[in-house]
Amino acid sequence: MEKAPGSPSARGSYPQKTAGILSSQYGINLFLAGLVLTFAWAVHAVGISKSHLLSYLITLMLIQLLWMLWYLCRSCTQRRLIREKDTHAGARWLKCGITLFAVITLILDSFKIGYYVDFSNCLSAAEGIFPVTHAIHTVLQVYFLWCHAKDVIQSFKTLERFGVIHSVFTNLLLWTNSVLTESKHQLNEHKERLITLGFGNITIVLDDHTPQCNCTTTTLCSIFSQGIYYLYPFNIEYHILASTMLYVLWKNIGRKVEHHQQHKTPFKFHGITVGMIFGLIVLISTIAKVVVYLIQIGRSKTKSELALTMFYLHAISVLALMCTAGIVALLIYRLEDRSLDNSKNPARKLDAELLVGTAAGSWLLSWGSILAIICAQAHPKYTWYNLPYSILVIVEKYIQNLFIIESIHHKEEKVNDDIKTLRIVTISRGSTLSLTPSYKEIYNGRAARDDGELPYLLNGSISARENDGAKAAASQASCPAMRSTPEFSFHSTSSVTNNKRRILKNIAAFLFLCNLSLWIPPAFGCRPEYDNGLEEIVFGFEPWIIVVNLAMPFSIFYRMHSAASLFEVNCKT
């Protein structure tokens, strides 16, 4: 029924829609201001230094800290009130994942503090205050997400919208700052690798904003400066995960939650041995490949070409297996007749949008590589492997996205009462009408009564009762086939369903480990998009580097987000 224009509910929803629009515009402008400041620092704009950027980020973190403290204090005073919760938001495995990344982020902050102490003579105070503020911000934010990620806020909604969206874009700016810093470090090593491959005609001045003074302790400075860049990938994942969880919290403000029973779906290793074994083989071989790649690349032209060839052949094999597994899973879904869950779910909707949106980063790089291979005048042998690799990257993400999105929209399988009915009816037809109390406790939750009455089952539509003994005997004698047909049908249907579920669980486990494996190389500096050299010749060094720096963070995040989604799929299947 449509609400009247002048009804109280319609009037009440209007200010909340306005607050949602205003808060989103506030967040976007907050982010754009920080983005421009970050870009100005990166290109050495006149009058803009790193201390200005860090001061802006420190201010944003302090504002978020004040808001989180206010929210936590208000929650403590209203502890007795029953709060609505979104059971789909803030899954436990997601909280555990963000906690792991947060712990490594705290190690990164301690390294930055040590780095500042060693170079304190020529670094601004902001560079020392930033890691301390960031560490406090990280601890409080993880605690906040653990306690309140599922909240559906129904009071102070306008204020809370601004507080949550401020937190979302603060994390996005911190993510952007980490991505830029990490990318600049990668560029410093990139030019040397290209020179060893024979691309000496590419010239560009790279600057990593190194301090203009000597370190007080050389050994510690080396440990801190090198260790920082190995920890950045975890810091990047932490901030993007935090921003997505906070975004779901923002979308849930003022939402009317549909109260459905939420079944816990813990992760179990039982039944996924095959998928885990193949996935672990891929993971171990990927780690070995990354180690060899980082050792060999840049040493000489021959070693660099062998490292790139090894990378492409391994990646082609893994992507081909992932495509095959995804196609098999989609075929199983086509054969199933399961209904989809179309209920409103901000967390699930965000998952699907992030999968498609972040996959565009890899697709952009792949289409650029394909075009470079087609247009290039000279083709070193190793560059030809880039063609099937780029095509498979596009196809694999396309198939995997379909599989994950369809899986998270499938309704969870519940224990069917029809199964219980079939078992009891079969027993009753087999002249075993008196069930033991323990047996009835399993199916009915109470002891049987002396009159032999069976429980009402099948949503109240079937009731098995004792009939006249002679009539039951005549029925059994005339229709012996009827006694076995339900049981046979049940067991055959159950067996087929279990086999399909087992295959899907193994595929999800295999793809989960494969996505973790494919996250490792780009996150830790194994990036053929930089080292291939062919794209730089066709598009120019600076344009291609800009494209890679913009697309690579989304490509890296896609793999981690896909792994998280596949973990959830494995739990649901």
Automatic annotation (TrEMBL):
Membrane-topology descriptor: Multi-pass membrane protein
Location(s) in or outside the cell? Cell membrane
Q: What's a GO biological-process term for it?
A: inner ear morphogenesis
Q: Which domain of life is it from?
A: Eukaryota
TM ranges: 26-47, 53-72, 93-117, 129-146, 229-250, 271-295, 311-333, 354-379, 507-525, 537-558
Q: Which Pfam families match?
A: Otopetrin (PF03189)
Family the entry assigns? Belongs to the otopetrin family.
The protein in question is named: OTOP1 protein
Show the taxonomic lineage. Answer: Eukaryota, Metazoa, Chordata, Craniata, Vertebrata
